[in-house]
Amino acid sequence: GVGMENVVNVSKKELTFQVEPGKECVETIVLESQVKGESVLFKVKTTEPGRYYVRPYVGLIRARQTAKIELIFNAMTELPPGLEKLSDRFLVQVARVPAGSGATAGDTDPDPSSIDAALKFWKDVKSSDVLSEKLKVKLIPKNAASSKSGAATTNAARSAAASNSVGAQTAAAPTVGTPRKEEKVMTVNEALGEDPIARRKALDEISELKKQLEEINEDLVAQEATLAELKNRAVGDKKDGVRLPTNEVKVEGPEVKIPIEQVVLMFVAALFSIALFIPSAGEVW
Length: 285
Prior knowledge:
Number of strands: 9
Radius of gyration: 31 Å
Shape: elongated
């Protein structure tokens, strides 16, 4: 039968990520079409979607063209224990575009803009027509080598001090400060992700929150107007010599205690929170 290498060539079989706390690590693979006269579909999955982000995770490759895929190790405050022993994997799946789908070698593109079309074509692909290749992952802490070198240097210095200074106390090893963690500020597009369904859902939620914010703002304005009118009426009655019992001057509705500016800021913060916690595009293998 037709093998993976006859349809798409994958540039790497093993991926090495040199990771460190608080920073992303990116590995890149290139998928090269080996097919003449027709486009090829691709899809990249991972066993650990919580640790990685694939961009783009699905798409089309024109005949004899290539597609560049970024495999991103997500920034983490703390790296998972036993990092070097983890057995993470990626799975690259490819298939020829089904006949009658309308895609040809000339009207498809290997960039993220073809994700919608690719997802549509994948629905028509038979499982028997899918070819796949597994990619191994090797995770290495970026400061592992420097830590070992630093420990060896410290031990050598201590030994030299002990042999050359009779009765001298062993000098304390220099304190290594914890590096300042660099926080990555996500753009709006990165926060929303590339999955069109997730983007639409997020934008709908943001639109709904905006409507609710406008309604609350209108209610607050109305309550302030009512409060001002009642206060003016009370002042006028006082000038006219009418003394009203305290319990007759009331403000209908709940008492306004929170300034409008604070309410607006709270809802704006809520909008950004929703955008930042949208799950990244990709599929679980």
